Each structure stands twice: as structure tokens, then as C-alpha cells.
Amino acid sequence: MDVSLSELKVPELKSRTRSVTKTGSGARVDQDKLHRAGALILEAIGENVFREGLRETPARFARMFQELCYGVGVDAASEITCTFKEGGEGLVVVRDISFNSLCEHHLVPFIGTAHIAYLPREGVVTGLSKLARVVELTARRPQVQERMTEEIADAIVRGIDPLGVAVLLDAEHFCMSMRGIKKPGARTLTTVFKGLLAEDKDQRREALSLLKD
Ligand SMILES: [Zn+2]
């Protein structure tokens, strides 16, 4: 349900021009709606949205959510823009790609590291920075860690068609640290194995040992 601007009585909102920013394939970020949402949250918790410290908060809130969610509707495989034949047949492992994302159940952060291994098909690899971009893009949308792990593996399969891929995410969820059960430091590990790294027990074990600490 839309809340009319006049109900909020936030003067600077009225003068704003409507701005909808296109992000991914069809996904749009509605800045005005985000702005109103920020003001509504403050109002709902009993705050005075006109007081000095909060006056600009709805605008900051809107800009922040636009930045945090630019990956909505964007295919992460589109980040793998180049592949090249390097000749090597061994596992390629990239560890400790840091990320932060938003838990889609609470809209608070979960932060951690991604570790990726893949077995090139006929020596076809991609730039290491492309893998980091895949992680970054999948993080820039409301997420659950299990699905994010799957989306990274899936993007790599579609992007470079390797013989196998393994992804491990290790993250702390603020919805567990700050609220509810309040267990700071608890870590959640998720893994996805595909292709040969799923089917071949030895390959799977080797990949997992390289991904783990
Ligand atoms: Zn959560």
C-alpha cells in the first residue's frame, strides 16, 4: 500500500522530483519510495523526523539501499566478461573474497568471505577479479546465504563452463548477533559442489581442503 507524501508531512519530500533508477534487467530502485520508507520507519518508532540529526536520514537511507541492492534482477554470470585459455588443468582456487550482503529475512547485514575453486575445462579460465565481481553482485540484493552460494556456483558454471566448481561461504549474520538469540561471532558455513567436484570423491575432498582454513 502506498503512503501519500502529505500524510508524512516531510516538506523536502514534496519538492523532490520522482527518480526511478534502473538497475538490472527490469529491476528498478524507486528513490522516492525508499525516502518515504525511511521516514516512515523513524515515525513508526516514535522519532521526530524533523529533528536536526534525522532530517537527512531518509535521503541517506534511500541512497544506501540503492547502493546495497543494485544487483536485484542482474544476472551474476554477466560479470564474467572474458575467458581465456591458459592451458593449466589443475584446480583454480580463489580464497578470502570478502563480501557483505543483506539478510532478506531481517534486512540487516551478513558479512563474510567467499572461497571458490573450479576445475577448468580444456584450460579455459577467467580473470580472478571476475570471480570477485560475481561474489559482489550476488551480495547486492536481499539474500540468504545458501542461495547466494548456489548463485555464485551457477554463475561460474554458465560463465566458463568448468568441469567442476566448489564454493564455500563463511559469514556472520547480524540478525543472530544483534537480535534474537544474540550470539556474536557465530559463523555460518555453506557449500555448493557441482560437476566433477560433486561427483568425484577425491576431487571433492581436495577442493574442500583447499577452501577451508
Ligand atoms: Zn536474518
CATH superfamily of the largest domain: GTP cyclohydrolase I, C-terminal domain/NADPH-dependent 7-cyano-7-deazaguanine reductase, N-terminal domain
Order of helices and strands: HHEEHHEEEEHEHEHEHH
Q: Please report the total strand number as a whole number.
A: 9
Percent in strands: 25-35%
What composes the largest sheet? 5 strands, mixed
Shape: elongated
Q: What is the number of helices?
A: 9
Mean pLDDT: 88
Rg, please?
A: 21 Å
CATH class of the largest domain: Alpha Beta
Extract low-pLDDT stretches: 1-17
Helices and strands, with pairings:
Layout: H1 5-8, H2 11-14, E1 20-22, E2 28-30, H3 31-44, H4 57-68, E3 83-85, E4 92-103, E5 109-119, E6 124-126, H5 128-139, E7 142-143, H6 145-160, E8 164-173, H7 174-177, E9 188-195, H8 196-199, H9 201-211
Parallel strand pairs: 4-7
Antiparallel strand pairs: 1-2, 3-6, 4-5, 5-8, 8-9
